[in-house]
Design goal:
It comes from Chelativorans salis. The chain is α+β, with helices and mostly antiparallel strands and 153 residues long. The protein contains four helices and eight strands. Bound molecules: coenzyme A. Coenzyme A (COA) binds next to strand 6, helix 3 and helix 4.
């Protein structure tokens, strides 16, 4: 899985945040960290839960959420494993295919732009086509395994 580079000055205008079809996309609050980490571990893996906890330690937290009522449907992080990195991101299986992944991606990338970054790196991008479709992402040559080399699981 290669890393991707995203020029943040070329992002689509759509902010990603706000309420659409009853689902709110917004920045996470510190007291929600336990719920976010539990969600990441339940639906994905412990490594992603660890990354969520690191991103949540930012001020403001570097995590965006998709929430319907009191149910967490997905998340996206930045500045977790490295500064300037986007990810991880995930949407629970039942909530996929409804545009939440796109909204979380755009909300987080816009926040990175606001935080002063010119580019974002999508670290170890799994669904490369998903990213290419929704933001101006280009593959970084020779970026695998990149910063994750030798990682313990
Ligand atoms: C990737 C992920 C976050 C996308 O979330 P989602 O809410 O389903 O995404 P969206 O509904 O916004 O998808 C929008 C479009 O991208 C497409 N898409 C979604 N996942 C895709 C994938 N893995 N590969 C290619 N295209 C994909 C959808 O088909 C959809 O197309 P459409 O607009 O023509 O219907 C979600 O599939 C997920 O949690 N996957 C597992 C975790 C993961 O791989 N995370 C990324 C780690 S780097």
């Amino acid at each position: 899985m290669p890393d991707l580079l995203v020029p943040l000055y070329k992002l689509p205008q759509e902010p990603g945040t706000g309420v659409e079809n009853g689902v709110t996309v917004r920045r996470a609050l510190a007291p929600e960290m336990h719920a976010i980490c539990a969600f990441a571990q339940k639906h994905f893996n412990k490594g992603w839960a660890s990354e969520c906890s690191v991103a949540m330690a930012g001020r403001p937290p570097g995590v965006y959420l998709a929430v319907e009522g009191k149910t967490l449907l997905g998340f996206a992080c930045y500045d977790a494993t490295a500064r300037g990195f986007f990810g991880p991101t995930g949407v629970s299986k039942a909530a996929r295919g409804k545009g939440l992944g796109r909204r979380l991606l755009l909300a987080t990338l816009h926040a990175m732009r606001e935080a002063g970054y010119g580019y974002a790196v999508i670290g170890g991008a799994g669904p490369v086509d998903f990213y290419r479709r929704h933001c101006p992402a280009i593959e970084i040559p020779d970026s695998e395994p990149g910063i994750y080399e030798g990682m313990l699981r």
